[in-house]
């Protein structure tokens, strides 16, 4: 289990303004790592919008057991 507790910022740069907070968890729930669950809540300050999620796995990777997997979260907001 991996706990998620991150600030949401306006951009990638250090010092970008905080627009909210993301909290949740990620669980790999089988011995071979083939079953995953992610749940999170995004709390925004004075904003409306939606988010898209995309899992990016290395092309040479056969499973996620013991490998790194990148989760890309794109958030579209209006103030």
Automatic annotation (TrEMBL):
UniProt xrefs under Pfam families: Dirigent
Subcellular location: Secreted, Extracellular space, Apoplast
GO cellular component term, pick one: apoplast
Keywords: Apoplast, Secreted
Biological role: Dirigent proteins impart stereoselectivity on the phenoxy radical-coupling reaction, yielding optically active lignans from two molecules of coniferyl alcohol in the biosynthesis of lignans, flavonolignans, and alkaloids and thus plays a central role in plant secondary metabolism.
Family: Belongs to the plant dirigent protein family.
Quaternary structure and partners: Homodimer.
Protein name: Dirigent protein
Organism: Nelumbo nucifera (Sacred lotus)
UniProt gene name: LOC109114827
């Amino acid at each position: 289990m991996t706990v998620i507790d991150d600030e949401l910022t306006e951009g990638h740069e250090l010092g970008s303004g905080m627009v909210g907070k993301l909290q949740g968890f990620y669980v790999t729930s089988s011995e071979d790592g083939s079953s995953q669950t992610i749940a999170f809540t995004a709390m925004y300050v004075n904003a409306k919008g939606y988010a898209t999620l995309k899992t990016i796995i290395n092309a040479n990777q056969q499973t996620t057991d013991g490998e790194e997997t990148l989760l890309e979260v794109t958030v579209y907001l209006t103030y």
